[in-house]
Design brief:
The structure is a single chain. The longest helix has 25 residues, at 6-30. The chain has one domain (35-178): Nucleoside Triphosphate Pyrophosphohydrolase (Alpha-Beta Complex), CATH 3.90.79.10. The protein is built from four helices and eight strands; from the N terminus they run αββββαββββαα. With 183 residues, the chain is α+β, with helices and mostly antiparallel strands. The radius of gyration is 23 Å and the shape is globular.
């Protein structure tokens, strides 16, 4: 077995330690706080006391089931962005709640292939009108399903939970007038 001096051993250890610190620092530098998006859970009821349905759509890039969401917009509040995305992506208009219903996280793949963490603030939108024409018509598959079915279709665990919490909320009696909606 070749002899390795204490000096040589220390030098190798120092280099490995230095490389480890550099790698750790690079990882920390590459980690950014999550980017922010705003989304809408769009819902309707068939009759006054009928079952609630939520609108899910496929994403344009991967085809997975999602809810309408988008990046912040200049001069628009969070609930207004959620309302706008619902119009652009799934063609619905209605009353959006100002207060967020919840949040979920996912990793978005950008055009350059980089995956970035995204925090999505979700608002509830009661659908009053389904439009025949809207900006992203034809680029997604849209389906009205129960909140439980929506929870099964989406991939993000926190979004699954939000759908189930929404189903529970809709089971309890409430007055629409008590909700803080934009208007």
């Amino acid at each position: 077995m070749p002899y390795i001096s204490k000096y040589r051993c220390s030098e190798v250890f120092f280099k490995l330690s230095l490389m480890s610190r550099v790698a750790t620092n690079l990882r920390l530098m590459m980690q950014r706080p999550p980017r922010q998006q705003y989304a809408a859970i769009c819902y309707r009821t068939k009759k006054k006391q009928g079952p609630v349905e939520v609108l899910v759509a496929t994403s344009r890039d991967t085809g997975r089931w999602v809810i309408p969401k988008g990046w912040p917009m200049q001069d628009k509040k969070a609930h207004q962005v959620a309302e706008r995305e619902a119009y652009e992506e799934v063609g619905v208009k209605g009353r959006v709640e100002k207060e967020p219903f919840g949040i979920y996280h996912y990793r978005k793949t950008l055009g350059n292939g980089l995956k970035v963490p995204v925090r999505v603030q979700v608002h509830v939108l009661k659908v009053e009108e389904c439009l025949k024409n809207f900006p992203e018509k034809g680029s997604r598959v849209l389906e009205w399903v129960s909140p439980q079915e929506a929870a099964e279709r989406v991939q993000e665990q926190e979004l699954k939970i939000l759908f189930l919490q929404f189903a529970e909320r809709m089971q309890t009696p409430h007055e629409d007038d008590d909700l803080k909606v934009a208007g």
